Hints:
The structure holds two protein chains of two kinds.
Chain A: H1 2-6, H2 9-19, E1 31-35, H3 50-58, E2 66-68, E3 79-81, E4 84-89, E5 96-101, H4 115-126, H5 135-141, E6 148-155, E7 158-163, H6 170-174, H7 182-187, H8 192-197, E8 205-211, E9 215-220, E10 235-240, H9 244-252, E11 258-260, H10 267-272, E12 276-278, E13 284-290, H11 301-310, H12 313-319, E14 324-326, H13 349-358, E15 367-373, H14 383-396, E16 399-405, H15 408-417, E17 429-430, E18 434-435, H16 439-447, H17 465-476, H18 480-496, E19 501-506, E20 510-512, E21 516-517, E22 533-534
Parallel strand pairs in A: 1-10, 1-11, 15-16, 15-17
Antiparallel strand pairs in A: 2-3, 4-5, 5-7, 6-7, 8-9, 9-10, 11-20, 12-20, 13-17, 13-18, 13-19, 14-19, 21-22
Chain B: H1 2-29, H2 34-39, H3 44-54, H4 60-72, H5 86-121, H6 126-140, H7 143-157, H8 175-208, H9 211-218, H10 223-250, H11 254-259, H12 265-275, H13 278-306
Amino acid sequence: MVSHRWKHPLVLALCMALAAPGAALAQSKPLRVGMTLSDIPTTSGQPNGGFEGYRMTGYTLYDALINWKLDDAKVSPTLMPGLATEWKVDEKDQTKWVFKLRKGVKFHDGSEFNADAVVWNFDKLFTKEAPQFDANQRAQVAGRILSIKGWRKVDDYTVELTTKTPDSTFPYQVSYVLYSSPAQWEKLGRDWKRFAAQPSGTGPFKLEKLVPRERAELVRNPAYWDPKRMAKSERLVLLPIPEATTRASALLSGQVDFIEAPPPDFVPRLKSSKMQITANVYPHFWPYFMSFREGSPWRDIRVRKAVNLAIDRAGVIKIIGGYAEPAKGIVDPGHIWFGKPSFDIKYDPNAAKKLLAEAGYGPGKPLALKVMVAPSGSGQMLPKPMNEFIQQNLKAVGINLELITVDWETVRNCRRAGAGSPVCQGAHGINNSSGTVDPFSAFSRVYHTGSIPPNGFNFMHYSDPKADELMDRAGRTFDDAKRDALLAELHAYLVDQAVDVWVVHDVGPRAMSSKVKGFVQVKHWFQDLAPVYVEN
Amino acid sequence: MFQYILSRLLYTFPIAIGVSLIVFALVHLAPGDPLSAVMGEVDQTMIAEMRASFGYDKPLPLQYMTWLGSVASGELGYSLRSGQAVLEILLSAAANTIALGVLASLLGFSVGIAAGMFAGYRNGTWLDKVVSASAIAGVSMPHYWLAIVLVIVFSVEWGLLPAVGAGSASSMFSWESFQHMILPTIALSAIPCAIVARTTRACVMEILSMEFVEALRARGLSESRITLHVTRNALPTVLAVMGLQFANLLGGSILVETVFAWPGTGSVLNQAIFDRDIPVLQGTILLLAMFFVVTNLVIDILQTWADPRVSRH
C-alpha cells in the first residue's frame, strides 16, 4: 500500500518539485546578515558605504544597465547584460555608446523600466536643474563614472550615452549606476527621504522595513526579470554590527546567519562551532604608495626593488590568520591583467641588502623612510601588527622605517592631496589599500600623470611616458581581448619598475552558519546575495 | 525655592552657549576634511561645490553664528553621510540610550545603595569586606571588558540572551526589547553601582559616628527611625554622586554600545567621529553636554529639597 502511495502522480510531482533547483524558493527562514558598516547603506538608489553598500542595498534592490557575473568562484568576474541586453560603441564616433534596453522589466512599484527612466536617472545624478537631482546620490557615484558627458533617449528601449573622450572602459563605469523608479518618486511627493524608506528599484529584493542604524528587511521580488537570479531567501535582514568581535558573537549565539569579515583570531572558535568560513582573493591590494617627487629616495629603482624584496609576506599573512595572499603586483598572478613581469616579488633579504649597497646605503648610511599609517580603515585588514612586522623586516636589511600613525581620514586626505603636501607631515609614503575592480580604478586613477592631485589619486606623483602611453592606448582599444593584453603589458611594466611596495591581497573572509547554502564567494568586492538562503 | 530654580535656569543659558562654542571649535579643529571623507573619490571641483552648498567655505565665526541660529530654532542640520535630519537621528538614538541609562541607574543605584547601607551598618564584618571588595572590583573593571564577558557567557556559551542590537520589536516595552537590554544594562550598571555603594558606605559610617545618632539612640528611637535620619543625612552626598553617574549613563557609552551594537548616542558619536560627519558630531556633543547641564540642575534642586542647608545663593 505504501509503495502505491509513493507512486501517486501528485506525490511524485511534489517530490520532483522539491528536488528541482528552484526548490529553495520554498525557503522561509530569513537570511540575517551582520555587516561591518555602522548604518544601513542608503537605499534611494546609489548606496553609500563603499562596495559593501553596493553588496547590501545596491545590487539587491537595484540593477545596473550592465551587471557583474557573480556566480563562479574560480574565475575573475566579468560584465554581463543587466537592464541593457546589448551595448556597442559607435564605429565612427567612439564617444557614443548605444544601449539596447531589456523589455518587460518592471520597477517594484509596477511601473515600467524604459529609456525615459534611464534619462531621468542620469538627470537625477548630473543635472542640477532637474527636480529629481540628488546631490547625495551624485556624490556616491560621480567618481566612478568620470567619462560620462551626455545621455539621450533614442527610442523607448534604446539610449545613447556619450563620453568626454573615447574610453573603452566605459562599460565598467556604467555598472555603478543604479536605476530608481521615477513613478515611485512622483508618488511619494518628489521626496528622496520618503523614497529611501519606500524605495523602488528593479532588483531581486524589495525593501519592506528600514530602521536607520538598526536593520533593513528586504523581501523577495517575485516579479524579478532574471529567473536565474531570483532570490532564494524570502527575507533578507541586514544588521549593522561594526565591531568584529560582536559580529562573531552574534553569529555564534545564532542572532545572525552570515557575517562579513570575522576577526582572524576568532576563526578557530567559529570553525570549532561548525561555522563555514569562505575566502577568495579579490581585486584588492595592500601597498605602500611612495613619493616620486624630487629628492625622494624612491626615485632610485634599486631602493624600490630592495624594499619589495625585504618583506616576508608569509610572515605578514601569518599575523592575519592566513587570510591573505602574497602580492606579486597590483593584481594577483591569476588575473588576466597580470602579464609577465620579469621582477619576481619575493622575500630575499640578501638581494635587498645588495641592492641597497649598490644604491649607496649601508650600516654607515642607513636608508630612512617615513610612511603614514592608520590603526584601522576600510580594506586595511590589521594594519598595526602588519606595519610593525614590516618595520622589523626592513630594519633587518638596514632600512629605518618610521611609521607616522594618524587616523584613517588623515591618511585619505594625504592621498587626495598628494605626496609632499602639508597634510602628509613629511611622509614618503602612505599605507592605503586599493581596489582594482576595473581598468580605471586599477591603473589610470593611480599611475597616470593626468591623475596627479588635484586631478586624481596619483598620490605618488608618478609620471612615466611609457606607462601613460599604455594606459591611453588601452582606453582607446575597444576590443576587449586586445585591451586586456595592453593592460597586462602595462602591469608587467609597473611591476618591473617596482613602483609601489606590494604586500598582500585580502581574501575577504566571511563566516556563516552551517545551514547557510548557496553562497559562492567570487573573486570580487561584490557578492551576490540572491542565491543565498538558510536551510529549514 | 522658586527664585533659586529660576536663577539656576538662567545660569544654564551662558553654560549652553559656552558648551556650544567649545563643541564647534573642537569639531572644526579636528584634522581631516569632512566633505572629502563623506564623498569618497570624487574630483576636487565637486567637493568644493558641496563645501559651498553646506556653507563650509565661509569663515568659522560666521559658520558658528549660522549653526547657533539654527540650533536656537531647533534645527540641527542634516547628516553629511546619510542626509537624514540630525534631530531625527538623535531622537531615536537618545531614546535607546535613555532606556538603557534609566534601567542601568535603577539597577546600579538600588543595588549600590542597599549594599552601601549594609556595609556601613556592618562595618568591619565579612559582609562589609565583601561589599568593599566588590565595589573596588566594580570601579576598576573596564565596563567594555565586562560587556564582552557577559556576551561570551550568556549569549555565546549558554545562548540565554541576545548578543547584539535592539531587536526587531516595534515597541521598546516588549519582552523582546527587554531581553536585548539585559546584558548592556548589567554592563553599564557595574561602575555606578560600585561608586554609589562606596559613597553610601562612607556616608553611613561617618553619620553613624556622629553624636546626634547617639543622642537619638539615648532618646529611645527605634533603629528604623534612626536609619531614616541617617538616610536623610546621607542623601545629599549620595544624590550628587548619583546625579553625575546618571548623566554619564544618559550620555551613552561608546564602548558598551559598540560591543552590543546598541543603536544609541554612543554609537552615533563614534560613527560621526570616524565619518567626520560634522552636523551629527556637533548635534550629539551638544545634546550630551545638555544632558549634563540639565541633570546637574535637577540634582541641585533635589539636594536643596533634601537638605535646605545646601543653598547655592
